[in-house]
Design a protein that fits this description.
Layout: E1 29-33, H1 37-46, E2 52-58, E3 61-64, H2 71-79, H3 95-101, E4 106-109, H4 120-129, E5 135-137, H5 140-156, E6 160-161, H6 170-175, H7 177-183, E7 186-190, H8 193-203, H9 208-217, H10 226-229, H11 232-246, H12 265-273, E8 276-285, E9 290-298, E10 310-316, E11 320-326, H13 331-345, H14 350-356, E12 359-365, E13 369-372, E14 389-395, E15 402-406, E16 429-430, E17 435-436, E18 441-445, H15 471-485, E19 492-496, H16 498-509, E20 517-520, H17 528-547, H18 550-565, H19 568-574, H20 588-603, H21 606-618, E21 630-635, H22 643-652, E22 657-662, H23 670-673, H24 675-686
Parallel strand pairs: 1-2, 1-4, 4-5, 5-6, 15-18, 15-19, 16-17, 19-20, 20-21, 21-22
Antiparallel strand pairs: 2-3, 7-8, 7-10, 8-9, 10-11, 11-12, 13-14, 14-18
Helix pairs in contact: 1-13, 4-5, 5-11, 8-9, 13-14, 15-16, 17-18, 17-21, 18-20
């Protein structure tokens, strides 16, 4: 019976559509070694693809059918505790013999951790990798011993997938192996689903044994639980990475490890009370120093991952970090990680394969902090943000009143200066500035779906141009950030343009958390004329994406945007109009628009532009639901957000509101250009002195 005649649902929590490889030729053939928990979940996914499973092997034998095995029957027998040898037509071949006899386009090793370790990796290399067939690994031991050589061979002959071995982050390592081999000096790994679950149970007041029981119920423990509890699994992952990057040869037994049962429960809870958490962290460096132990980590560290994902933090020169986040913890998610590389090696587009097991790769400077979003964080448009994170910067002491600062869609987490680098609002954020970092604890973050370091098209391996991260989504993510920092209520939220919309959405969704609002050039809705202009911009960008050359389209769209951001008064004074002023047929105003557009296209992402531009136009807040004291700042020449809109919001607001209008020739960009006038308003708003 053909394998894809059935619809078999994977475990809850992992949703993967039926993906097909490119082209009209028959799908590739596959040999599965190890139909255990992970292997069975993989079979469910393969049943909805055009990959033909021609052989399944366990310790008892092999079922080999060139037309494709009956996946439903295999699942029925294995789920009931049976053996492959119980299936009609099964051969008595064990895995060693099966890889010699079965010819398949792909081989998946999902055997148990301790399966035939001695010599098994060399056997796979000889009979699978060396003949050019892709090998997709879930079993870690063989990968630990051979990762460096296998990734070298991948470039020349058969490809080796280690995505599932590294908790869904192995594909990112494989794709960036040359860069990381050249630059990475060390690595820190966190992401033991079992031990993290145990820690979370203890932090909530349970015992370590309660946590072990919960990890078992979730299917997160190895067949032999001691492998998890004694840090063996983490040591294997560390050995894989050390081998892949630096050629370090070490068995997991040689890596110093710590048993979770040796921890003091009160110490775990004490860290949690101080705003930290405990994680099993595996550390290694290019010198071959490897160790696994439990550490206290900040809740704003990439290592503070929940139990359903893994983090790999690579140390780079200049105090930079390359962070990989994978969501491949547990049998179903591990199977999704395998499926991702099966799709990729079978010819599916990488972004399509990524949807099978989304992962994140992002470079962060030392100053940037992160918070992980919950696995059930779903955007208003219905898209799951997993593994999702938010990147942010802070200035000032956390003991001081907290002020959140947000700007337009192109604004970043660098609102103030960091080191020698100026921020986009350094004129207002800094020591002695209007938003005084010596008086306030200031937070700024990169938007979800934007072009920064948070979850979005520039950091995740799967993105769809139709996805939108709405203002309420940004507000929910910001609330999660505040939770991680232990901030129950902010002194003020200062938002300009898109950031002002997010501020209003936060006040509507989380009223008790907002002390006061200062909103500049933003209202409770998008004006129809603004939506009209942005719709034309989006059409231009989509045309560019469809043509395969989005940069010129993004430049044109930004140029069109500049016409709406600035005023006719400024253009009249700034640019001469007679034709004789044109240089080589180009008017000065046209040269200006092209220069601004080209600069924007070099630093922004077209997918992020579509995401956040659409979010602007979907924004809707009920004025009466905004009860926090509200200062609204309008600009008399703003064509995007007419002052009348802000006056209406001030009247209809559910709390005390003040409207202040700034005279400017800079239109909507007045919040960036009118430093003195805007600064004066900010000082008064933050001090609540509006008399």
């Amino acid at each position: 019976m053909p394998h894809n005649d059935h619809t078999i649902a994977p475990d809850a929590g992992v949703r993967i559509d039926a993906y097909r490889t490119s082209g009209s030729s028959p799908g590739p053939t596959l040999h599965l070694l190890g139909p255990g928990q992970v292997g069975r979940e993989l079979l469910k996914l393969l049943a909805s693809s055009d990959v033909r499973v021609v052989a399944v092997t366990d310790g008892s034998g092999t079922l080999h059918e060139s037309a494709g095995v009956d996946i439903e029957r295999v699942l029925e027998v294995k789920t009931a505790g049976g053996k492959v040898r119980d299936l009609p037509g099964a051969e008595p071949w064990d895995a060693w013999e099966a890889v010699e006899r079965v010819e398949a386009d792909l081989v998946v090793d999902a055997t148990s951790t301790d399966f035939a370790r001695e010599g098994w990796g060399a056997h796979l290399e000889s009979h699978v990798v060396s003949r050019g067939a892709p090998l997709v690994m879930a079993a870690k031991d063989a990968a630990a011993a051979h990762a460096h050589r296998w990734l070298d061979l991948s470039a020349a002959r058969g490809r080796v997938g280690i995505n599932a071995v590294l908790g869904g982050a192995g594909a990112a390592l494989r794709h960036q192996i040359a860069e990381l081999r050249a630059e990475a000096t060390g690595v820190a790994i966190a992401g033991s689903g079992s031990t993290t679950t145990i820690i979370e149970v203890v932090e909530a007041g349970g015992s370590i044994q309660d946590g072990i029981d919960e990890a078992g119920r979730r299917g997160l423990l190895e067949t032999d639980p001691e492998l998890d509890l004694k840090g063996y699994d983490a040591a294997v992952k560390l050995a894989v990475v050390a081998s892949a990057l630096w050629g370090v040869t070490a068995t997991p037994e040689e890596v110093p490890r710590q048993d979770i049962r040796d921890l003091e429960e009160e110490e775990i809870r004490g860290r949690a009370a101080r705003g930290h958490t405990t994680r099993l962290v595996a550390r290694g460096d290019a010198e071959g120093r490897l160790a696994v132990g439990f550490e206290g980590v900040s809740r704003t560290s990439p290592l503070a991952v929940p139990g359903d994902r893994a983090a790999y933090v690579y140390d780079l020169p200049g105090r930079r970090r390359r962070v990989h986040l994978g969501a491949g913890m547990g049998p179903a998610a591990t199977a999704a990680g395998l499926f991702r590389e099966i799709l990729e090696f079978s010819g599916a587009a990488v972004e399509v394969a990524g949807r099978a097991a989304p992962a994140v790769s992002v470079e962060l400077p030392a100053s940037t902090e992160t918070v992980h979003l919950p696995s059930d964080f779903v955007l208003e448009c219905g898209v799951s943000v997993h593994p999702g994170h938010l990147a942010f910067e802070r200035w000032g002491s956390p003991d001081r009143p907290t002020v959140v600062v947000m700007g337009g869609i192109s604004a970043t987490r660098f609102a103030g200066s960091v080191g020698d680098e100026r921020g986009w609002w350094t004129d207002q954020v800094g020591p002695g500035r209007a938003i005084d970092t010596e008086r306030y604890h200031v937070i700024a973050f990169d938007y979800l779906g934007g072009a920064g370091a948070s979850w979005g098209p520039c950091t995740t391996n799967a993105w769809d141009p139709a996805w939108v991260a709405a203002t309420v989504d940004q507000a929910r993510a910001l609330a999660g950030l505040l939770d991680a920092l232990g901030v129950e209520r902010v002194h003020a939220v200062v938002g300009a343009s898109f950031g002002g919309m997010v501020a209003l959405a936060l006040a509507e969704a989380f009223p008790p958390r907002v002390g006061r609002l200062c909103v500049l050039g933003a209202s409770h809705r998008s004006h129809p004329m603004a939506t009209a202009a942005r719709e034309i911009q989006r059409r231009i960008v989509r045309l560019g994406l469809d043509s395969g050359d989005p940069a010129p389209a993004l430049s044109i769209a930004r140029g069109l945007g500049m016409i709406t951001y600035r005023s006719s008064l400024e253009f009249e004074e700034r640019f001469p109009t007679p034709a004789e002023h044109a240089v080589a047929g180009v008017f000065p105003v046209a040269a200006y628009l092209k220069a601004r557009g080209d600069a924007f296209a070099q630093r922004f992402d077209p997918q992020a532009f579509l995401c956040l531009s659409e979010a602007l136009d979907r924004h809707a807040v009920h004025p009466e639901s905004v009860r926090a004291p509200l200062t609204l700042v309008g600009f008399d020449t703003d064509a995007l957000v007419p002052p009348a809109e802000l006056e209406r919001l001030a009247v209809e607001s559910g709390g005390p509101a003040w409207y202040i209008e700034v005279q400017t020739e800079y239109g909507h960009d007045g919040f960036l250009k009118e430093h003195d006038a805007v600064g004066e308003v900010l000082v008064r708003c933050l001090a609540a002195d509006l008399s």
